[in-house]
Amino acid sequence: MNKRMTVWARATALVLLAAILMQSAPLWAQSYDPDEELPTPTLLEKRLHKMGRGLANVMFGWTELPLTFDRKMKDGKPLTYLLATVPVLGTARAVMRTGVGVYEFTTFFYSSEQVNFEAILEPEYLF
After folding, report:
1. Whether the Cβ atoms of residue 46 and residue 111 lie closer than 8 Å to each other
2. Which of 10, 25, 31, 60 matches a 20 to 30 Å C-alpha distance to 115?
């Protein structure tokens, strides 16, 4: 009987100690600010991002045609507008996006610290 009491007393003491430690756990926690914790990208990361954006624009520039048609159709444009104007707009956007992609892909390595690495076209990626 005495041995049971000591086991019971030890188990109770451990549970109480664990409860006390759990209550004080927030005191040990580190405050987290996501704006301060994110590292700034290096020059190589910026260059690779520019290269990837350029490659994506070269590969998927042609998708401006169906995307323009879809946007204008959802805007409620009439059928004559969709059949006459949208192919011209989509082709112009596709040529522009592909050209910007070629520019970004060919000049990604020659960029320096002073260059703004922001996207030339919005949205940055189509998909």
Report:
1. yes
2. 60
